[in-house]
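User: Fold this, then the next.

Assistant: Folding the first:
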Amino acid sequence: MIKKVFVMVVVLLSVLGLCACSAKVNEVNGNQGKDSSSTDDEGITESPDDSSAADSGKDDLNAFLDDKRIIQDQSFDVELDDWGSVRLVSYEPDNSVDFEDVSFFLTVEDQVIYSFPYYCENNSTENYVGLFDSVAAVDFYDVNNDNFKDVIVIINYVTGAGPQGMTPRPRARIFLADNQRFHQKFDLATDLIDDITNNIAEKDLTIAAIREYLKAE
């Protein structure tokens, strides 16, 4: 009888020992890959701050422009409604980039605060009228009578083809101030640009002619 009790006690102790070992193994396995000093809270990865993520995707509007590419005689200090006192900068293409078009910016104290939209995809004139030659004129005029100044530009291009290939050909560009948004911007008025291109002969294309045409519309 005593022998049977002894055997039962031994078996019971063995079972308890196996359970304890199994629990210890599970604990060790569950901690693999974790820093021994870390807690459950420290293992949680927080989402990145939204403002930081947004800033990383912004254009570098605080960049300084290359003075050598600024077209000084076609860059103007102007008071532009919600923008306040700014400078509109006409900016020559990078000579190392084939078919790059002229660019336009608003700056304050030589820092870019706004980049005007491109007329051609990727700002390339390859499928347009030719190579950029010069900016002929810049005008600030309320095109659509909303009491906000818009921007009219005349740009010269050369095709390099035919007897008159190096004769500059003017093209109009109109940027309409978008006063319906919290942050003012300018929209490219492609319909008006097409109308002017189709209805004003190149030899007659001046700021005065564009203004007269727009008044009649």
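Now the next one, as you asked:
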Amino acid sequence: MNNSTRQIVFIDGVGGKRYMRGTFVRYFERRGYNVLCFDYKVSSQSLDEIKKNLSEFLSAVGGQGEYHAVGYSFGGVLLRSLNEQLEPHLRPRRAVLLASPLRAMRLARRLRHWKIYQILTGECGQFAADEDRMSKVPMLSIPCAHVYGTWPWLGAFCFFFGFDLPHDGMVAADEAIPSSQAQAIPVPASHAFIPSNFHALSAIDQWLSRTV
């Protein structure tokens, strides 16, 4: 039986837009959820501005009642970076970090000085490449599942690092899993398409539907 929380906030990754999340929205709306998407413009917004806007967004949603949060890719970093700053009653009930790095990304470190990478990812991309800054982002204190991809063929990761370790084309599995004790769910999906992957959506649904 599903719990009573019927709102989901989807916090997108760098470059993601709400019009791209139709499959995700439709999947959960069919299951009775109201889905609200948060995106941002890395080309014109600072990281502090993005975090401020997200904090206000989550506070407004939380003010209307309980909700769950799904942080996709860098969206999960944003959620972790400000969750403790929210009033306890405004925090998500449950969370999913979807293909979201928990430490500095190998790929980001490799590309951080490339001009095209800097243009496309802005300050967020530099943050994701910084070992010190990423290590200081706290883990969530609310129930959280880590859903990560294992389909490596679409993305730049294999071009630079090959197939010596499992990855989704952008984020390595060991960058998305905090520990062997965590609720970690691998799915056969590449990074760019995991928000619309059926296995990922089903895993998210099952986690959010838990009553304990």
